[in-house]
């Protein structure tokens, strides 16, 4: 009898939030609050928690650190029992916990655990995080509703893809040649994408606008603040989402997106996209990414495991 493959450690429901670490935390937090359209809910000099207009308690944490790095990626699971079960399954796979299952000591609270992926990124699974009433439900303002996706630079795209599919149960939606892989955990085409790169780092964080009109008005607000797109606006092939990339005061790349393709789990066929201009820029409005934005997306090497230093 062949051995049954191990089950993923949990069933991820959504990408909740991302944490950024940077020497320019206060300038970055100011930008995300006053220009980008998030609302600051808590924080002091060293850390800021910022909320979108959707029901998530916070979608961004910005924390003071020595150098730019990814702080954490947080996913939602359904129940505390699922968090406990994930701890057992991680142990069975020999993956050590960074934080044991328990109440999370952070804004919004919740019950969760944390562990590191193979490249030292901190991954959090949580449930029962304080829910909030969505803001601006009629879409009067051009506010980011939620995180859309995080793109991560990896030195081994196959190993990264294997870990996130096998351990975290994510599904491959598409490949962009053997350069990028797009992973989903719900009907959104992707919440995580890996990009093959010379070193591990954060590539960019994307925020979802409620519609393409909000997306364009958001770009307009940034322009009013003297912040112009580093790449875009345009529409990508994989995911069929609109894109406009900017850099925050810390030099990290942030993106407005909208109209992310919705995947029918039973009918979706993964494809491999060729990396040609007409597929990465469907509208033909964006042109190729500049050297400058590519350099910001590459960032600086991030060895992760910051909590051990
Ligand atoms: Fe993106």
UniProtKB/TrEMBL annotation:
Keyword set, alphabetical order: Metal-binding
PROSITE patterns: VOC
UniProt domain VOC: residue ranges: 14-128, 146-259
Superkingdom: Bacteria
InterPro entries, A to Z: Glyas_Bleomycin-R_OHBP_Dase, Glyas_Fos-R_dOase_dom, MMCE/EMCE_epimerase, VOC_core
UniProt entry tagged with the keyword Transport: no
Membrane-spanning residues: none
Signal peptide stretch: none
PANTHER family, per database record: METHYLMALONYL-COA EPIMERASE, METHYLMALONYL-COA EPIMERASE, MITOCHONDRIAL
Protein name: VOC family protein
Organism: Actinoallomurus liliacearum
Upper lineage: Bacteria, Bacillati, Actinomycetota, Actinomycetes, Streptosporangiales
């Amino acid at each position: 009898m062949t051995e049954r493959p191990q089950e993923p450690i949990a069933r991820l429901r959504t990408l909740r939030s991302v944490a950024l670490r940077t020497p320019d935390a206060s300038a970055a937090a100011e930008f995300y609050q006053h220009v980008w359209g998030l609302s600051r809910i808590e924080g002091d000099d060293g850390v800021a928690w910022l909320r979108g207009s959707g029901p998530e308690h916070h979608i961004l944490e910005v924390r003071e650190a020595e150098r730019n790095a990814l702080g954490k990626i947080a996913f939602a699971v359904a129940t505390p029992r699922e968090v406990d079960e994930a701890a057992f399954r991680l142990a069975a796979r020999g993956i050590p916990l960074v934080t044991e299952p328990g109440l999370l000591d952070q804004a919004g609270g919740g019950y969760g655990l944390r562990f590191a992926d193979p490249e030292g990124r901190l991954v959090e699974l949580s449930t029962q995080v304080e829910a909030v009433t969505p803001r601006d439900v009629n879409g009067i303002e051009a506010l980011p509703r939620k995180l859309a996706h995080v793109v991560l630079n990896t030195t081994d795209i196959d190993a990264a893809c294997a870990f996130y599919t096998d351990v975290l149960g994510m599904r491959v939606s598409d490949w962009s040649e053997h350069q990028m892989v797009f992973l989903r955990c719900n009907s959104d085409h992707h919440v995580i994408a890996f990009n093959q790169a010379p070193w591990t780092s954060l590539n960019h964080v994307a925020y979802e606008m409620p519609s393409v009109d909000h997306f364009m008005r958001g770009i307009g607000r940034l322009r009013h603040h003297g912040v112009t797109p580093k790449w875009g606006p345009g529409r990508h092939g994989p995911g069929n989402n609109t894109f406009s990339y900017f850099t925050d005061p810390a030099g990290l790349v942030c993106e407005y997106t909208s109209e992310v393709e919705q995947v029918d789990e039973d009918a979706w066929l993964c494809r491999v996209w060729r990396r040609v201009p007409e597929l990465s820029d469907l509208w033909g409005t964006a042109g190729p990414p500049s050297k400058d934005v590519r350099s910001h997306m590459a960032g600086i090497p991030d060895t992760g495991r910051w909590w051990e230093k």
